[in-house]
Structure formats: structure tokens, C-alpha cells
């Protein structure tokens, strides 16, 4: 009877510890934004977001999911026709030449994903029709690629030119850099903000780790008792 009790205790403890180790990893959501607006024309510039160790609250420094949100506009007119803070709509009705736009995202480790490249928007025309700012969410799971909608220069959720999956499994802590480009003179590009939304792999809470340690110690004691009972 004592042998059976010891074996049952070992089996129960192994089951509990197995559930702790094999259970689904916790996911830590993290959202961070840079709202420092800029206007550029026929040049490039950057905006960055820095993720600190304090931001991830003990999570493993590994990105499990990632989307990027940009609030921007492209307006016709001379290089000084658009200023910050960005207006709700373009001040000029001239062609905006959206094909000039480019956006790249670089993670703290130096890996880069192309979000928009020159000619992504209206590769065969002068568009977009000047209008309001648009908000675009770049998400690998979106049903449509950026620039392929009709009309192409609209807000919504789209797949980027590259793949954000290339940045998954890499570290989140450090500086994330958005490179913004406009490759033609006049018809300036304005960026109001950019936002990163991530899901990070999380480690168990300290109480869970303590329970795991106690469980392993208890397992060793029970195993010794079972061996002693069987001798």
C-alpha cells in the first residue's frame, strides 16, 4: 500500500509540473508610438521608438507578433505647401505624386523590412487625389497588399511590401527606426505618427517559478521514498 501511495504522489507531481512547463506561454502586449510630426520633400528622415527593459516587465525579449501603424499624407504643391502640425486635409489641389513615398522599419538588431517602396502607390499615375490624411496598418495577415487597392492611396490594413515575420523571434528591447523617404522635388510628404504594436513571449510569474522549484525538490524527496519502499 505504501508503494502505491508513493508512486501515485510521483505521478501527480509530475503531471502538475508538466502542465506548468508545457502550458502555453504568456503573451505580453506592448504598444509604443512616436508622435513627433515631420514634413519632408526630396529627402529622407527618420523617427524612432525605444523599448526599454522596464517596458517589457520581465518578458522574454522576443517578438511574437508585430504590426506597424502610420498616420501620414502626401500633398501637391511646393516644398513649403505642407507644414506641421499636419492639417486634416491638403492645402493644395495639385498632383501629390504618391509614387515617391518609401517607408522602412529597422529593429534594434539592424534587420530591415520594407513597408512601402517607390512606386508602391500609383506606379502609373500622378495620384493620389489630394485629400485627408490616411492611417495605414501594416499587418502580414491582411487580405490585400499595400498599393493594390482601388484607389491605391487609402487608409486601412494592408500587407507591407516586405514581411514583418522577418523580425519575429528577435529582440524587442532597443531602438526601432522608421526611415521615411520622398524621392521627388515638390509635393511634400508628411508623417503625423508611427506606432508599433507587439506581442512578446512572457516568462512565468515569480510565484510560478517558486512553485516549480518547490515541486522539483518535492519530486526528488518522493522519488527517494519510493525507492526506499521498494527495497
Task: Describe the 3D structure.
The protein has helices at residues 2-22, 206-230; strands spanning 26-34, 38-40, 43-51, 63-74, 101-106, 112-116, 134-138, 156-158, 174-182, 189-202. It is of the alpha+beta class. The protein has one domain: Galactose-binding domain-like (Jelly Rolls). The strands form 2 sheets. Strands 1, 2, 4, 7, 8 and 10 form a 6-stranded mixed sheet that branches. Strands 3-9-5-6 form a 4-stranded antiparallel sheet, with no helix packed on it. Helix 1 (2-22) packs antiparallel against helix 2 (206-230). Residues 1-22, 208-212 and 219-230 have low confidence and may be disordered.
Write out the CATH superfamily name.
Answer: Galactose-binding domain-like
Number of domains as seen in the coordinates = 1
* Helix residue percentage: 10-25%
- Poorly predicted regions: 1-22, 208-212, 219-230
| SSE series | HEEEEEEEEEEH
- How far the N terminus sits from the C terminus, by CA atoms, comes to 14 Å
What is the overall silhouette?
A: elongated
Radius of gyration computed on alpha carbons? 26 Å
CATH class, please? Mainly Beta
The proportion of residues in beta strands is 25-35%
Main sheet attributes: strand count, strand direction, barrel closure: 6 strands, mixed
Total helices: the number is 2
Described by its quaternary structure, the protein is single chain
CATH architecture assignment name: Sandwich
Question: What structural class do you assign from the helix and strand content?
Answer: alpha+beta
Mean pLDDT: 82
User: What do we call the CATH topology?
Assistant: Jelly Rolls
